[in-house]
Amino acid sequence: MNTQDALTVTSVTKSFGGVHAIADVSFNVRAGSLTALIGPNGAGKSTMFNLFTNLYIADSGTIAYFGQDLAGMRSDKIARLGLIRTFQTARVFAGMTVLENVLAGAHIGVSANVWEEALRLPRASSEERTVREKAAHLIDVLGLSSVAEESAISLPLGLQKLLEIARALMAGPKVLLLDEPAAGLNDTETLRLAELLVAINAAGVTMVVVEHNMSLVMSISQDIVVLDAGRVIARGTPAAVQADERVIEAYVGRATDTVAS
Amino acid sequence: MQQALEIIIGGLLQGGAFALVALGFALIFRVTGTINLAQGAFVVVGALLLYTFHQVLMWPLAIAFVASLAVTVLVGTLLAQFVLEPALRKLPTAGMVILTAGLLTFFEGAILLCWGSQPYQLEPFSGSRPYEVFGLRFPTQSPWDAGATILIVFALWYVLQKTTVGKALRAVSENPAAAALMGINVKRMTILSYAVASGIGGIAGMVIGPIVSLQFDGGGIFTNAGFISVTIGGVASFFGAVVGGLGLGLIEQGAAGYISSLFSTTIALVLLLAMLILRPTGIIAGRIRRREDVRDVAHNQSNVSTKLSPMQGRVLAVIMLVLLAVAPVLLNATGGGGLLSSLVIAGIFFIALLGLDVILGYCGQVSLGHAAFMAMGGYTAAISCVKFGLPPIVGVLLGLVVSLLCAAMLSLVTVRLRGHYMALATLSFGLLIDTLTVGLSDWTGGPSGMTGIPNFSIFGYTFAGPVANYYLVWGVVIVGLIVLGNAMRSDFGRVLRSIRTDQTAALALGIDVPRYKLFAFLIGAGFASIAGSLLAFDFQFLSPDMVSTQQSFLIITMLVIGGEGTLVGPVIGVVLLTLLPTAFQFLANYKTLASGVLLVTAMLYFPSGLYGGFTALIRRFSGGGKRSTPTPLPAETAA
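Structure tokens for the assembled complex are given below, as produced in the milestone run.
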């Protein structure tokens, strides 16, 4: 078993104004794992994603990706290292079709330059073919085939989130950060998504998932990190976290005396 | 000493008028967060109305003054009500810059129709004998000019700081959404600020009218001056606008007095570009930090698909190619040889448009100085051939080198700038090149232009006459279309379009945004440069107005009304704006007006241009909706 960390967060703090969104947080994401990042609203989960990709810069502390410090690196460079994310509110490219959106995700893997593309030289043509085959496959896997030629922005929000996942997978991630992938999906769709996420993880992609759907989280993740008010309050397997009193407290509030006695 | 003091007086007088235009800019920027390039037009409108009322209809000065002011404000209010305010809710800030460029063109066209193209000068308000104080001569207009500036600055300050309306205006400028929630009528405040700004512009025109000469296209000059003042001084600050205006007046008069009047604006523009690099907020940054995001959210572009199926695209491409190939034969047979020359010009503009479409249509970067690269390509090629006897193809290549170097340097500035600052930097660059093409007269022949340029020749064949040039130019168009079409259907095109839509999402996919912006800008500049060279070789003549900022605006108009982000769409814009005025001479007078109206209308109501409407029609009549055509490889362009 690979014991290396895909992500190592060490004493990271991030404040907005006077509010500590993330306060002295440390945890790690094992390479190859499917780790869930959960917690009540405002716990700092999405802030953590923005810190991973340097959209936010931490006030203090370090974040390492396979041992490499990410400090001062631009977001696109981080993505090219294989750390790919989706957004809490899906950010699809509005003026493009579903297929074009997924194709745009292939950018990192394309090695032909603009001249080769402009003149349709062999490398550009063969790459474009490969990329289109892969995109068609991913669109099929995520159940978007019937809307492939539709404008991305016209999709319902749930499908936009699936489209974002397809686009992220197109980039060939080593570590995939998914922010609320099941938001806007019905139960059947959520079940299919769960199977898909497990399959992607089994294929060797490390995954960090922020999600509010607890049955989904408990069924797919190997490891859970619980944040509350910017701090890690629990950490462990789904069973251990479910039994943790502090977690229950964070979600449902402190058990009052009358109930306890 | 005497001379120096008189230059300073002249500079301050001119600067006072600039300051007034700049105040209009600053007011609108504070309230709406956008730049109104039509601001300078109100100066000319106000002055020419006063001319008509006072000097033609012989109304007393005071009545004529009030009447002119009233009409100017009325025009400004109507524009705000029916064009600018609705546009603010539809367009991003950079789009507003393009829209107001269209309004400026509209005004020039309208003034041309009302007052003709001759220059006007107003009579001084109180006699023409200069005052003499301590041996210094003051023009009689100076107390009026200084008085108006001081009065307006004070009035603005008073209204904004001491009245409820002022408080509401300031609230809108800081956060329109929150102001609306507090019960402030944002729409009314916005229209009010445009109305007041147009009035300030009108007054500026009336008090400076006796000092300068006014022409239908003078609006652009005042817009430029006001815009330079406000950018140097600080666009969000009234005090900055006044400082910038006075400073610009001093710089221009000083440069004219000591160096050469040809370069007076050059120096100001170099200062301006330096300012944009070092301190984009201007000398005096506004105290209120405007939340740029507030109005800039959710400006999604149109969802109208301009795609044709590969089949439809191929059919259309073949039809176009056949038409293009036989056009000279047909035209010569029917005696339309004059039209052939216009087709050559249309093709040249189309080449420049292909480049602009990559920058603006695909990458979403507003370039208002596109013709500057035509100028560099044109003049470098012309000078290499005429002064150094180099072969034309070497001239074209040298032009490319010069254009790409300048584009790369300009990109150092623009990649760091966002939204309308990019538009402003490219506009300043275009204006700078304008002053150089006129000013470097030893090289360029100055305003009257450069003659004796040879026709293009290569491998011993000279492209002389319209037919040869026609095939040369449209050959380049077709090669450009194929090459760019390929690139835009590949990863490169998708990267540019993703940058246009959402830079954060693009970065998250590993796209090096600044680098691809630079690429897009270089490609665009390259195409413009080639177009400029071909223009010089085709006419065997090149003058500054053939490649001026006016042409930059015209090219943008062609792109927007044709359909941006489509490569082929702009051909519709080119045909409308170059062929129709040639084919129907009586239309020539209306060209400027029509160009402005078309640009504004297209910005507001046809975001995918006429080409979007055209492809929608084709899809409807060929029975294939986008859903029913199984197209694994969508054709983005028809050719």
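Confidence is low (pLDDT under 50) at residues 257-261 of chain A. The two ends of chain A are 46 Å apart (CA to CA). Further analysis is deferred to the final report.
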